[in-house]
């Protein structure tokens, strides 16, 4: 069975995945843009959104790895033409992960204030962070459910329905943000930062409902949990465990970056919030092509089409560099309007204009790292991803961050350390991939 790896087919998978992938950062970017322009305490509200978004992203990335694990297993069985053997796996995975999410709500809700103190939040920023989190955390199980369903769709080589679901959720969030944050005359009172949190939860609930509908109506995958567990559940759990450790390392990076930015003052964390959310947006944008790599590499690996796998990697390297350069150029063209979109505070804008260029410079490097992240997830080689993240975080990022902080680089130090972190993530994966699969392609 020969698989299609043409640019047209890659785009057919990547562009819908790109649109669905940016749904989560759009929720946070929308919240940031809306609360950053309220009349009172905009800087403190923006800082709170940034802190909570970082913590929620950590939780979502830790448990949201089900998408990659489900996609990898399902796509490999699709490639081997044996889908029936894993049809009941997604429902079992969803059951496990949503149960864990409820336990996390119970465990974190009473301790929200203590959690955000660890991020250096204090006074009004701390109060806003707690208010925002205690509402938005209830969308967490719906987000994980949606992410897991997206994994099943990806394994089936389908990114169209996740795109539709994401458009519905993002559109609802934008509309609800404006209505609930600012209010509508005498009909709906302005709820400020709490309104942004309610808007996100409602949007996440809607996405979960549509995810269930499309999975049941458009695929052979059931949502009813059946036992005994599928024979691949152990492989799934090992993948999740490796990805869990990897994501903890990833979030150590985000924790230190956010903690240092918060320690520099309200204007710095507000600026960091804008910049890191734009970085997340670009990352999820690139993730469209990483998803195509994930989907196709799993199928090719399952079908033992190693020559096509090498050709796919070469094409994706080229596309990744082009996408990264385009993202950097777009950011450069709209450099000043982007800042004004998120804040009117002169100090925040000055800090943003002084440091955002580093985010733009790293975009081609980010593209390469994220593309190969996606491919390794499709191949099911989560151990390699784990080891690379541990190295790039603890051997590269953390020492560089502390060193540059001691030199007084502040935001520049954070973003420069992130750049080296990205380089240390991408290059080892490219080398390892070629070392494994070039010999295999020559032997088949």
Automatic annotation (TrEMBL):
Membrane topology: Multi-pass membrane protein
Chain ranges passing through the membrane: 45-63, 93-112, 132-153, 160-184, 196-216, 236-257, 269-296, 316-336, 356-376, 388-405, 411-431
InterPro entries to which the protein is assigned, alphabetical: DinF-like (IPR044644), MATE_fam (IPR002528), MATE_MdtK (IPR050222), MdtK-like (IPR048279)
Keywords: Antiport, Cell membrane, Ion transport, Membrane, Transmembrane, Transmembrane helix, Transport
Subcellular location: Cell membrane
Superkingdom to which the source organism belongs: Bacteria
Predominant localisation class: membrane
CDD domains assigned: MATE_DinF_like (cd13136)
Family statement drawn from the similarity comment of this UniProt entry: Belongs to the multi antimicrobial extrusion (MATE) (TC 2.A.66.1) family.
Name of protein: Multidrug-efflux transporter
Organism of origin: Flavivirga amylovorans
């Amino acid at each position: 069975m020969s698989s299609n790896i043409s640019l047209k087919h890659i785009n057919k998978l990547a562009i819908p995945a790109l649109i669905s992938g940016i749904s989560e950062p759009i929720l946070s970017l929308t919240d940031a843009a809306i609360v950053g322009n309220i009349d009172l305490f905009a800087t403190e509200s923006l800082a709170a959104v940034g802190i909570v978004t970082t913590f929620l992203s950590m939780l979502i990335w830790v448990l949201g790895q089900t998408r990659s694990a489900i996609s990898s297993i399902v796509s490999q069985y699709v490639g081997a033409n044996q889908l029936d053997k894993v049809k009941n796996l997604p429902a079992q995975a969803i059951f496990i992960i949503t149960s864990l999410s409820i336990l996390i709500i119970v465990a974190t809700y009473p301790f929200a204030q203590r959690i955000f103190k660890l991020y250096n939040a204090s006074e009004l920023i701390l109060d806003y962070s707690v208010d925002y989190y205690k509402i938005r955390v209830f969308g967490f199980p719906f987000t994980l459910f949606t992410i897991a369903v997206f994994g099943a769709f990806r394994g089936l080589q389908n990114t169209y329905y996740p795109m539709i679901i994401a458009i519905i959720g993002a559109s609802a969030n934008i509309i609800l943000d404006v209505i609930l944050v600012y209010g509508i005359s005498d009909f709906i009172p302005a709820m400020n930062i709490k309104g942004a949190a309610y808007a996100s939860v409602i949007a996440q609930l809607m996405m979960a409902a549509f995810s269930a509908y499309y999975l049941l109506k458009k695929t052979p995958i059931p949502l009813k949990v059946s036992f005994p567990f599928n024979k691949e559940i152990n492989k799934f759990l090992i993948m999740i465990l490796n990805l869990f450790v990897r994501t903890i390392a990833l979030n150590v990076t985000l924790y230190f970056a956010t903690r240092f930015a918060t320690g520099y003052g309200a204007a710095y964390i507000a600026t960091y919030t804008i910049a890191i959310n734009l970085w997340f947006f670009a990352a999820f944008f690139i993730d469209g092509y990483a998803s195509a790599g994930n989907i196709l590499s799993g199928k090719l690996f399952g079908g033992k089409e190693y020559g096509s796998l090498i050709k796919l990697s070469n094409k994706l390297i080229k596309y990744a560099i082009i996408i990264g350069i385009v993202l950097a150029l777009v950011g450069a063209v709209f450099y000043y309007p982007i800042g004004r979109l998120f804040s009117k505070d002169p100090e925040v804008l000055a800090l943003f204009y002084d440091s955002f260029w580093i985010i733009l410079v790293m975009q081609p490097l980010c593209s390469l790292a994220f593309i190969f992240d996606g491919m390794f997830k499709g191949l099911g080689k989560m151990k390699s991803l784990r080891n690379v993240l541990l190295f790039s975080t603890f051997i590269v990022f953390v020492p560089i961050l502390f060193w540059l902080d001691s030199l007084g680089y502040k935001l520049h130090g954070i973003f420069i350390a992130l750049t080296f972190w990205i380089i240390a993530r991408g290059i080892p994966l490219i080398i390892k991939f070629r070392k494994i699969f070039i010999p295999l392609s020559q032997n088949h």
